[in-house]
């Protein structure tokens, strides 16, 4: 039995309507309980800020593409060696062996776990795992200590799904989605550039509308979106379809993003890294901000949710299943790149990238992300991400929180950036909003937990997992959020007095929807006919 009473802290627990109240939080055997005997051990949290552990619902931390990025960045490994932490060895705690590693924009597995926990994050989802490499992703998760994990499985350009859509086999498509999630131990359906990756393999770089045919005339971005969103909702998955829209990065793509939202109007859907999908302007001519249009649409459509994919100045590494985007980035920067065809399933591209504050495009991207945050009417439905490591490393979250909470800090940065493309940007008009601590607790904890359907995460009510972050109050929000004083994961004190002290193994979250087993016979036949991987060797 391990118990702890955290006393006197100022608690921000928006899921339970607690906004900055001084109260005790009681922990027993890894969970939060309503009360404890008076003689239970105490932790004095007076003058400190207490929140649930952070939850990242969109990052790239464990997948075959993440490993490609690691392989491509030896220079970063040399610049940022990470020593094994000095861990305390308690007799009864389930502690992993400390490991050294490397950091940079794409840290090694162990370093990823340590650094997330060091920031007060206790749950992280990888947003793009190709089904054929799911086993690899889970092996990487096994080596990522402390944090709870889970992954979204890439669908929407898989040949088997396209065949079912072409044949009008909607029930079989739904059974296939359920089978695939169970086989790969995935948590949610990820759609990347629906139909567009298949078209990219045929040398088509952009779609002209959601009704472009990807091979068979019945297989279009629209029918793929409808089929997968319908399946995810019919299967009652905890998280709705997680959509990376078509034409990412292309001027004018805000029209495509709005078309996609309208195509799924009335159905639950999550739109990811919206910053990269909110460009007004004209294809081949100019870029401008389309953040206002996206914010206005989402304000009147409660079935939509999103995350921002904020760009932060400095080093990043772009990696995505959307091979066409990486071709565009490579062609415009001349930087090293990888582009991989993942058999009949999806694509993959990687390009290391630097966002400079003197560059007009990076400045516009930075501004659009902040506009999306500052114009958002509902923090529960628009949550924090940098699409790590695409817009910037997760290590930049404290600075991003600072930008959202402190207008003068933001204004100083606005003075430094390249204003060339900022005409019409709401940020240039002087958006004055400052996020409160409670709103930060929503966009980094309570909101992601709700969008993920994780009832025991993101709050501090009785029965919740005892994932708790305790910060020293500090007007410098970058410093405050970069160095939590204490972090508990499942009741284990992983950060103590600002130092990483324990590294238990985290838990894996997966969805296990039911399906008609008859679908397996058909899939097996398909494997025998077309795939290089045996049915028996597939999955996690
Ligand atoms: Zn992503």
List the helices and strands and how they pair.
Layout: E1 3-7, E2 10-13, E3 18-22, E4 25-28, E5 31-33, E6 42-44, E7 48-52, E8 54-59, H1 64-72, H2 74-79, E9 81-82, E10 101-102, H3 109-118, E11 121-129, H4 134-142, E12 148-155, H5 159-166, H6 170-184, E13 188-192, H7 196-201, H8 221-234, E14 242-244, H9 254-263, E15 269-271, E16 279-282, E17 286-289, H10 291-299, E18 304-307, E19 314-320, H11 323-333, E20 338-342, E21 346-355, H12 360-375, E22 382-383, H13 397-405, H14 407-416, H15 437-452, E23 468-472, H16 477-482, E24 486-489, E25 492-496, E26 499-500, H17 518-530
Parallel strand pairs: 1-6, 2-7, 8-11, 11-12, 12-13, 13-14, 14-15, 15-18, 18-22
Antiparallel strand pairs: 1-4, 2-3, 4-5, 7-23, 9-10, 16-17, 19-21, 20-21, 23-24, 24-25, 25-26
Bound molecules: zinc ion (ZN).
Zinc ion binds near residues 58, 127, 387 and 390.
List its traits.
540 residues; alpha/beta; TIM Barrel; seven-stranded mixed sheet; globular; binds zinc ion
């Amino acid at each position: 039995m391990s118990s702890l009473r955290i006393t006197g802290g100022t608690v921000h627990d928006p899921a339970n309507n607690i906004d900055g109240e001084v109260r005790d939080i009681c922990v027993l055997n890894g969970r939060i309980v309503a009360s404890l005997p008076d003689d239970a051990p105490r932790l004095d949290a007076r003058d400190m800020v207490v929140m649930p552990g952070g939850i990242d619902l969109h990052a790239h931390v464990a997948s075959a593409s993440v490993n490609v990025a690691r392989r491509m960045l030896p220079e970063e490994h040399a610049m940022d060696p990470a020593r094994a932490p000095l861990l305390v060895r308690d007799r009864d705690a389930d502690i992993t062996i400390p490991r050294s590693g490397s950091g940079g924009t794409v840290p090694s597995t162990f370093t990823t776990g340590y650094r997330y926990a060091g920031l007060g994050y206790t749950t992280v989802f990888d947003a793009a795992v190709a089904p054929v490499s799911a086993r690899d992703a889970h092996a990487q998760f096994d080596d990522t200590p402390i944090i709870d994990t889970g992954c979204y499985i890439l669908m929407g350009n898989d040949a088997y799904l396209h065949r079912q859509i072409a044949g009008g086999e909607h029930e079989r498509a739904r059974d296939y989605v359920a089978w695939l999630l169970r086989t790969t131990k995935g948590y949610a359906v990820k759609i990347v550039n629906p139909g567009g990756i298949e078209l990219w393999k045929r040398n088509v770089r952009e779609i002209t509308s959601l009704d472009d045919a990807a091979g068979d005339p019945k297989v279009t971005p629209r029918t793929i979106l409808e089929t997968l969103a319908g399946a995810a909702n019919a299967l009652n998955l905890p998280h709705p379809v997680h959509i990376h829209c078509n034409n990412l990065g292309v001027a004018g793509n805000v029209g495509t993003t709005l078309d996609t939202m309208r195509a799924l109007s009335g159905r639950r859907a999550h739109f990811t890294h919206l910053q990269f999908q909110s460009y007004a302007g004209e294809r081949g001519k100019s870029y401008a901000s389309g953040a206002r249009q996206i914010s206005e649409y989402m304000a009147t459509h409660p079935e939509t949710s999103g995350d921002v994919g904020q760009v932060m100045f400095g080093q990043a590494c772009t990696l995505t299943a959307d091979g066409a985007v990486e071709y565009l980035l490579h062609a415009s920067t001349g930087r090293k790149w990888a582009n991989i065809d993942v058999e009949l399933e999806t694509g993959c591209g990687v390009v290391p990238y630097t966002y400079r504050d003197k560059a007009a495009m990076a400045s516009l991207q930075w501004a659009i992300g902040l506009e999306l945050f500052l114009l958002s009417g509902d923090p529960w439905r628009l949550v924090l991400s940098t699409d790590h490591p695409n817009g910037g490393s997760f290590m930049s979250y404290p600075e991003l929180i600072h930008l959202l909470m402190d207008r003068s800090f933001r204004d100083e940065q606005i003075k430094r950036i390249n204003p060339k493309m900022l005409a019409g940007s709401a940020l240039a008009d002087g958006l004055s909003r400052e996020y409160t601590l409670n709103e930060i607790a929503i966009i980094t904890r309570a909101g992601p937990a709700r969008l993920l359907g994780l009832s025991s995460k993101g709050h501090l009510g009785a029965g919740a997992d005892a994932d708790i972050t305790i910060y020293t109050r500090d007007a410098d929000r970058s410093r405050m959020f970069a160095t939590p004083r204490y972090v508990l994961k499942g009741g284990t004190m992983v950060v103590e007095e600002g130092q990483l002290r324990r590294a238990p193994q985290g838990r894996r979250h997966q969805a296990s929807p039911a399906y008609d087993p008859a679908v397996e016979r058909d899939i097996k036949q398909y494997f025998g006919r077309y795939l290089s991987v045996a049915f028996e060797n597939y999955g996690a």
